[in-house]
DNA sequence: TTCGGTAGTCATCTTTTTCTGACTTATTGC
DNA sequence: GCAATAAGTCAGAAAAAGATGACTACCGAA
């Protein structure tokens, strides 16, 4: 039984796809920080109070898989990893800002 | 231990609030149909293929509680109930459309 | 008064998400 | 070599969300 959300007869909701990209307890927070510049795992752990490694990791993995974030290994002084917005990610920023300004 | 998402030190994400209004398996679909005019329980059951009473009921209750939808008892021919967008709901429509057009 | 339509509730079960704590791997400063 | 920093993984537990099936309540028509 393939339980895909196949709302047939044209009842599919396109907005749903986009909403799902940012659904989850920590994704909006991660996305917001990423809007201001590249983010790092350790920074996220510090900024997102209450979050845990596992949740941040899986949120990052999903954001990568959905191509909103790009992972980069920065071979410098203290070698580290950065996540920055992809083009697709940037495209969502204006809408995200509107969501923010809404209330 | 009150486990509220209190991202202190200014790290709260305002967009998160709005995103949560439309989070869940059926809310985007309900909202979308409500954009085109008042919706009824039985219609939703027909249109949202795969959905079940309980899920639709609780989605409707949450959309009401979040003041996106207003419930109205229509005392007419076949007495029934209608849900229509509130002002707050209408305010989200433009953003919702953008989410739709994004892909 | 019984039936169909409309709009649910309730208890329970299953699935999905999120959290916890212990352990891992690579690099770098001392 | 040894500890710290950075970025995780993994198994298991708990919590939240969603699904199921039975049952309820109101109205109107036959």
Description:
The structure is a homodimer of 103-residue chains. Chain A contains 5 helices and 2 strands, in the order ααααββα. By secondary structure, chain A is mostly helical. Chain A has one domain: Arc Repressor Mutant, subunit A. Chain A has a two-stranded antiparallel sheet with strand order 1-2. Chain A starts with 13 loop residues before the first helix and ends with a helix. Chains A and B meet through helix 1, helix 2 and helix 5 of A and helix 1, helix 2 and helix 5 of B.
Write the topology of this structure.
Two copies of one chain form a homodimer.
Chain A: H1 14-21, H2 27-35, H3 41-47, H4 53-65, E1 69-74, E2 80-85, H5 87-101
Antiparallel strand pairs in A: 1-2
The structure holds a DNA duplex (30 and 30 nucleotides).
Q: Biggest interface pair, residues each?
A: A-B, 35 and 35 residues
The CATH topology of chain A is given as: Arc Repressor Mutant, subunit A
Number of domains of chain A: 1
Give the CATH H-level superfamily of chain A. Winged helix-like DNA-binding domain superfamily/Winged helix DNA-binding domain
What's the story with the biggest beta sheet of chain A?
2 strands, antiparallel
Reading off the top of the CATH hierarchy, the class of chain A is best stated as: Mainly Alpha
Oligomer: homodimer
Choose one word for the global shape of chain A. Answer: globular
Output the helix-strand order of chain A.
HHHHEEH
Helix content of chain A: 40-55%
Alpha-beta classification of chain A: mainly alpha
Low confidence ranges of chain A: 1-11
Q: How many individual helices of chain A?
A: 5
Under the CATH scheme, the architecture of chain A is Orthogonal Bundle
- Strands of chain A, total number: 2
N/C terminus separation of chain A? 41 Å
Arithmetic mean pLDDT of chain A: 89
- Rg from Cα of chain A: 16 Å
Strand order of the largest sheet of chain A: 1-2
Beta fraction of chain A = 5-15%
């Amino acid at each position: 039984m393939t339980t895909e959300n196949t709302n047939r007869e044209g009842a599919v909701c396109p907005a749903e796809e986009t909403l799902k990209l940012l659904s989850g307890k920590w994704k909006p927070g991660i996305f917001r920080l990423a809007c201001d510049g590249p983010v790092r795992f350790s920074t996220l752990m510090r900024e997102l109070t209450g979050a845990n490694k596992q949740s941040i990791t899986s949120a990052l993995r999903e954001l990568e898989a959905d191509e909103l974030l790009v992972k980069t290994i920065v071979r410098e002084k203290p070698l580290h990893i950065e996540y920055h917005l992809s083009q697709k990610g940037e495209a969502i920023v204006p809408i995200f800002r509107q969501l923010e300004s809404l209330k």
